[in-house]
Design brief:
By secondary structure, the chain is mainly beta. The protein contains no helices and eleven strands. The strands form two sheets. Strands 2, 4, 5, 6, 9, 10 and 11 form a seven-stranded mixed sheet that branches. Strands 1-3-8-7 form a four-stranded antiparallel sheet, with no helix packed on it. It is globular.
Length: 118
């Protein structure tokens, strides 16, 4: 059974930081392209950060310079370091696994809530 389990969400004030983690099991981690999505109430789910073919991270314009994507292949774990958080970053954050870079994910985590107050 494939499982993607996020953790690290919470409530912070604007300007604060959070680090999200996603523990992956049930699939061969190195064969998948991992990324983070988010969905705010009343809005569509959007990509936040993902890895490209060559292992380079790709970020949404809205988070460039503030968020850092990383992974530990030995631990099958994906991370998202979020700094200088803004109220507009408030959303449910989802870890996801895609078979190809940029493809719609095949597997999703259950999500972790991030709330940023002004």
């Amino acid at each position: 059974e494939v499982q993607l389990v996020e953790s690290g969400g919470g409530s912070v004030e604007a300007g604060g930081s959070l680090r999200l983690s996603c523990a992956v099991s049930g699939l061969t981690y190195n064969n998948w392209y991992m990324g983070w999505f988010r969905q705010a109430p009343g809005k569509e789910r959007e990509g936040v950060a993902r890895f490209d073919w060559n292992g380079s991270p790709i970020y949404a314009e809205s988070v460039k310079g503030r968020f850092t994507l990383s992974q530990d292949n030995a631990k099958n774990t994906l991370y998202l370091q979020m700094n200088s958080l803004k109220p507009e970053d408030t959303a449910m954050y989802y870890c996801a696994a895609s078979r190809f870079p940029g493809a719609w994910p095949s597997y999703w985590g259950q999500g972790t809530q991030v709330t940023v107050s002004p």
